[in-house]
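In pairs, describe these two lines:
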Amino acid sequence: MAKELVEKMMHKFIPDPEVIKCHKSLQFLGQKLHDPNLWHINRRSICMAFAVGLFGAWIPTPGQMAIAAAMAIYFRANLPISVALVWLTNPITMPPLFYFAYQVGLWSMNLPASDNFDFSLTGMLSGLGDVWQPFLMGCFILGVVSAAAGYFVIKQFWAYHVKQKWQNRHYLGQKFARYRVFHSTEWRQQ
């Protein structure tokens, strides 16, 4: 069920992999774009895609999508899902998430919050010296934690889903076997 839902969403919003593979500006990647794990939906590629995408979401630079795509190619993760997950940090969610990253960085480095921060262009540029180290440390910590959590949560979800499918198949098999026994001609003759 989950696999079918993901496939349906991918076919609706994402261009055909053959079109992407043949794009002129991506030819420098060569055969790497032809790896089936970049496009197929299987347990390994989806788990890695969540790890890559969630880590990439915490990278505080423009070009997060390109970085996530490069990481997806390197780790052989599902490319469309890796790139899509980067959009968790979008212009609306970025300020609170990155402030949280700054707070995590302060906590991890055991530093007090900078109190000389002025919300103006000159204030931001002068206060950047106090903020960048805890901010980047917080982004790194949250990226690693998010990637690990995403990988293992999706892996457990996938295992649970497969187990449910097998149990349903087993239950239906038993039900069908009882039906066959009940309706068989040998049983009626007795």
